[in-house]
Design brief:
The protein is of the alpha+beta class and 293 residues long. The chain is built from 10 helices and 13 strands. The strands form 3 sheets. Strands 7-6-3-4-5-11 form a 6-stranded mixed sheet, covered by helices on one side. Strands 8-9-2-1-10 form a 5-stranded antiparallel sheet, with helices on both faces. The structure holds zinc ion (ZN).
């Protein structure tokens, strides 16, 4: 099943939905970060959850989500823009064999934070507790409390058993009442989406949009408004990494130059590596000395 993100509404029921099939997106993240099956599961769930929120972003906005858990996984970061370009990484990539379940990796109650930003400006920020110890439910709780938009989020993933870790399918659904919509209808769908049988059903096989909405008892025919293809995409570049190097203390650049004769910088988001030669470093150093003179 190819990756797709579908946004739509139930005009009579007063609900909006976003549906995502995102196995390709997850696998690109797992491949880049070489995450193991436990870490990869949490990364995949976070990437699909972030993709579901792309429809809420306006032109050039970017949303950065952080799930901060006390267990061995630590922080899971995912961010997304309005074109459904998603990227992210978990703090720990290898958890097996010491940690052998998602629940053990999460380890307890945490926090979830979100920052909406424009290219040169930080916009809305928010933080709430993450009491469900579950990436999707904690995000729904965050949206309901911090953004004051009642929300239901469910993501179902299936991982291949053998290494390298790979996602067979990943299905996500976000539901929210439209302004003035009927809350009873939403509450019932949310109750189903949070139930164990629904999660097990979502994780048992790839599900289509219509199967998923039918399972949530949303009998009315949905109106699809927009389809996009979510992709794993990072906006890093050598130029951007270089501008970060330019902010370092000139002594740090000088010591890289003297000790290594080059610098190698990895992007946390996509694991791409950027190399800076001695000549590159000398030019950064000359510029930074000229700037401070
Ligand atoms: Zn990158």
């Amino acid at each position: 099943m190819s990756d797709v993100l579908i946004r739509g509404i139930f005009p009579h029921g007063g609900l909006r939905f976003v549906f995502c099939q995102g196995a390709g997106l997850c696998n690109e993240g797992l491949r880049r970060h070489r995450a193991d099956p436990i870490s990869g599961w949490l990364l995949g769930e976070a990437l699909v959850a972030a993709a579901l929120l792309s429809a809420q972003l306006k032109f050039d906005e970017r949303l950065t989500l952080r799930w901060i858990y006390p267990g061995p996984i630590g922080t899971i970061l995912a961010d997304v823009n309005e074109s459904a370009e998603v990227r992210g990484f978990p703090q720990r990539l290898t958890l097996l064999p010491d940690v052998n379940s998602v629940a053990a990796a999460i380890g307890g109650d945490g926090r979830i934070s979100a920052v909406t930003s424009l290219p040169n400006r930080i916009g809305r920020t928010g933080i709430t507790e993450a009491i469900f110890r579950d990436v999707s439910r904690d995000l729904a709780y965050f949206l309901s409390l911090s953004y004051q938009v009642e929300s239901a989020v469910a993501v179902g993933l299936a991982m291949r058993a053998e290494l390298p870790a790979a996602v067979e399918f990943a299905t996500g659904i976000l539901l929210q009442p439209l302004p003035g919509g009927r809350l009873e209808r939403f509450d019932e769908a949310r109750r189903i989406s949070e139930s164990l049988p629904f999660r097990q059903w979502l994780e048992a096989a790839p599900r289509s949009l219509h199967e998923t909405l039918a399972r949530l008892d949303l009998g009315e025919t949905p109106q699809e408004l927009q389809q996009q293809v979510p992709v794993y995409k990072c906006n890093c570049s050598k130029h951007k990494v270089e501008s970060v190097l330019r902010t370092l203390d000139p002594d740090e650049i000088r010591s890289m130059l003297e000790q290594e004769g080059m610098a190698q910088v990895n992007c946390h988001f996509c694991a791409d590596t950027y190399y800076f030669s001695a000549a590159d470093l000398q030019s950064i150093l000359d510029n930074s000395l000229a700037g401070t003179a």
